[in-house]
Amino acid sequence: QVQLVESGxxxxxxxxxxxxSCVASGSIASFNRMGWYRQAPGKQRELVATIISxxxxxxxxxxxxxxxxxxxxxxxxxxxxxxSLKPEDTAVYYCNAQLRALGVKDYWGQGTQVxxxx
Length: 118
What we know:
This protein is mainly beta. It is built from no helices and 11 strands. The chain is globular, with a radius of gyration of 14 Å.
């Protein structure tokens, strides 16, 4: 069973930065895609950023230019560097690992809280 553990969340003022980390119990190179999602109170979980095995990244329009996702295969870790944070970025951030083989299998971390004060 794959385990994903996020860290790095916290309270920050608007305009500040945070870096989230997600460590996988297995090799992240074995997954087709790694991603970060977030869920604010009363809202649906939404995609923030993804990175595929070739290193290509994709971002939600609301974070493009402010957030950067990266991966370090040797440490089985993905990161989300978040700059110029806004109060609307406040949410629980979840790490996702997706495997596509005879269907799609998603694995999730427990989430880390990010709170941006105005």
